[in-house]
Design a protein that fits this description.
Elements: E1 2-5, E2 12-15, E3 19-23, E4 30-35, E5 38-41, E6 47-52, E7 55-59, H1 65-81, H2 87-93, E8 101-106, E9 116-121
Parallel strand pairs: 1-8
Antiparallel strand pairs: 2-3, 3-4, 4-5, 6-7, 6-9, 8-9
Helix pairs in contact: 1-2
This protein binds zinc ion.
The site of zinc ion (ZN) has 7 residues, from loops.
Amino acid sequence: MEIREAKEGVEHTFSEQVGEQVKCPICDEVWNTDFQGDVTFGVCEHLRFFYIDQEFVEFYGDWDKDRFRADYDKIEEKMLEEGALYVIDVFKEVSSKDIDKIIYVSFDYGPMCQPFGLWGYKE
Ligand SMILES: [Zn+2]
């Protein structure tokens, strides 16, 4: 499915007052706020899942999550066998009628470690 980086200053914002935020590209609802390390979550009708640090943290709404998870696991396993595994490449290969797109933010924790936060949504 389509996956892209969150637009800086629009979908991924930072201000002294509210901290770092990730927002829904459709309705502007705040999905994730990190205010000085204090993280809070939000949800809207478009959000389908939140994924970070190699795992699905939460699924939202009423849809076939089990099937999506099974497809994801199958593709991840295949790519591991082929010797290269990039989370973004796995998500590119997965398709679901319940998810249209994914945006991600790369949190820069250092040169060797770049965890990705990903949010899947339906338009
Ligand atoms: Zn929304």
